[in-house]
């Protein structure tokens, strides 16, 4: 009986680890920006500032998910703590643990990026219904 409980606990731990999502590294973010065919709009600080300061976070949020790829019209925000109004967002990635919220102004129900339910390619998360994104202080 104890063996079965231990085995179930181990399997649960492996399942949780397998579905965990990590934030993008600065190198991964720069590579994605350089190689994507998404239509990018840059807001906040200049793209050249990505990775120059540990106090700056980069968030990419896009309008379309095609299979496991996030794309379409995408915004790239680089900067500090803020709330980004992001209507029509269906997927996102970031260099920190941001939160996607279902109401504007970073109100309503907000889910941490690290607890992503549906992971997509290139460390993106499927976030349908996102209306705003909370960028935490670094």
Structure report:
The protein has 138 residues and is α+β, with helices and mostly antiparallel strands. The protein has one domain (20-135). It has helices spanning 2-19, 26-35; strands at 39-44, 57-66, 69-79, 82-94, 99-103, 107-112, 119-120, 124-135. Strands 1, 2, 3, 4, 5, 6, 7 and 8 form an 8-stranded mixed β-sheet that branches. The longest helix has 18 residues, at 2-19. Residues 1-18 have low confidence and may be disordered. Residues 1-20 form the signal peptide. Keywords: Signal.
Distance between the termini: 46 Å
In total, the number of strands is: 8
Shape: globular
Question: What structural class do helix, strand and pairing data support?
Answer: alpha+beta
Q: Stretches where pLDDT falls below 50 for ≥5 residues?
A: 1-18
Order of helices and strands: HHEEEEEEEE
Tell me the helix content.
Answer: 10-25%
Radius of gyration: 16 Å
Count of alpha/pi helices? 2
How large is the share of residues in beta strands?
Answer: over 45%
Number of domains: 1
User: Overall pLDDT, averaged?
Assistant: 87
Main sheet properties: 8 strands, mixed
């Amino acid at each position: 009986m104890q063996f079965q409980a231990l085995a179930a606990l181990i399997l649960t731990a492996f399942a949780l680890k397998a579905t965990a999502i990590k934030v993008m590294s600065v190198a991964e973010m720069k590579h994605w920006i350089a190689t994507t065919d998404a239509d990018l709009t840059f807001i906040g600080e200049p793209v050249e500032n990505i990775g120059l300061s540990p106090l700056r976070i980069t968030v990419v949020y896009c309008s379309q998910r095609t299979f496991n790829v996030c794309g379409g019209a995408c915004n790239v925000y680089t900067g500090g703590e803020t709330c980004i109004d992001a209507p029509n967002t269906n997927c996102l990635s970031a260099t920190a643990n941001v939160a996607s919220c279902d109401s504007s102004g970073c109100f309503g129900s907000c889910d941490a990026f690290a607890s992503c339910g549906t992971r997509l390619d290139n460390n993106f998360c499927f976030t349908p219904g996102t209306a705003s994104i909370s960028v935490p202080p670094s």
